[in-house]
């Protein structure tokens, strides 16, 4: 025990160093997202994350957007607790049969204009779980998908870049969508 304490005093921390406050790429992506969201919505972007059957690897990366390392809430990106307050549904995982109905109801509860982002390889087409008896497939098997962000899991930077692309190119209204 004494040896462990002594070693921990001498060894450097094993955690990654925090990014510099002036991380240029993150700051630039965040600024673009805020600008595009304000142009489309007149305010910051609100995101409801839905785990449709993920292994939680994708959630770890999504949560990182809010942690002290990235802290994107300071730049306007908001995760909300209800689909009724959301602009974007950020869906992870293959859609399991048990979550299929819940995912559809979440979509129906989200006011228009709304966008659906499939985050990660599983959300794109079922990924590792493609063909499983417990899954119906990727998110597109249940909902109209506006953007797929590849990766297993996608990094916070990839997630952020995807949201910027979505806000920059998506149509403002999806009136022809199922309610
Ligand atoms: S894409 Fe990878 S990390 Fe994300 S839910 Fe699938 S297996 Fe897990």
Task: Describe it.
- The protein is an alpha/beta fold and 179 residues long.
- Helix content is 37%, strand content 15%.
- It contains 6 helices and 7 strands, in the order H-H-E-H-E-E-E-H-E-H-E-E-H.
- It has helices at residues 2-10, 24-41, 57-64, 97-109, 121-125, 156-169; strands at 46-51, 78-79, 88-92, 95-96, 115-119, 135-137, 147-149.
- The strands form 2 sheets. A 5-stranded parallel beta sheet has the order 2-1-3-5-7. A two-stranded antiparallel sheet has the order 4-6.
- Mean pLDDT is 85; it is low at 171-179.
- Bound molecules: iron/sulfur cluster.
- The site of iron/sulfur cluster has 13 residues, from helix 3 and helix 5.
Structural class: alpha/beta
Shape descriptor = globular
Distance between the termini: 62 Å
Assembly state of the chains shown: single chain
Sequence of secondary-structure elements: HHEHEEEHEHEEH
What's the arrangement of strands in the largest beta sheet? 2-1-3-5-7
> What's the total helix number?
6
Rounded to an integer in angstroms, the radius of gyration calculated over CA atoms is 18 Å
User: What does the average pLDDT come to?
Assistant: 85
Number of strands: 7
Please specify the SSE layout and strand pairing.
Blueprint: H1 2-10, H2 24-41, E1 46-51, H3 57-64, E2 78-79, E3 88-92, E4 95-96, H4 97-109, E5 115-119, H5 121-125, E6 135-137, E7 147-149, H6 156-169
Parallel strand pairs: 1-2, 1-3, 3-5, 5-7
Antiparallel strand pairs: 4-6
Helix pairs in contact: 2-6
Iron/sulfur cluster binds next to helix 3 and helix 5.
């Amino acid at each position: 025990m004494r040896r462990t304490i002594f070693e921990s005093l001498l060894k450097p921390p094993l955690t990654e160093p925090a990014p510099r406050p002036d991380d240029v790429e993150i700051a630039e992506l965040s600024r673009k997202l805020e600008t595009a969201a304000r142009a489309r919505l007149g305010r910051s972007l609100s995101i409801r994350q839905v785990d449709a059957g993920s292994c939680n690897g994708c959630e770890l990366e999504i949560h990182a957007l809010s942690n002290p390392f990235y802290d994107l809430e300071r730049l306007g990106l908001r995760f909300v607790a209800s689909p009724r307050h959301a602009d974007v549904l950020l869906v992870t995982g293959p859609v399991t049969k048990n979550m299929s109905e819940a995912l559809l109801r979440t979509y129906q509860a989200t006011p228009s204009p709304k966008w659906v982002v499939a985050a990660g390889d599983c959300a794109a087409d079922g990924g590792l779980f493609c063909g499983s008896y417990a899954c119906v497939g990727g998110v597109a098997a249940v909902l109209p998908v506006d953007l797929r962000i590849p990766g297993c899991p996608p990094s916070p930077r990839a997630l952020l870049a995807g949201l910027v692309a979505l806000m920059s190119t998506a149509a403002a209204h999806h009136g022809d969508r199922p309610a």
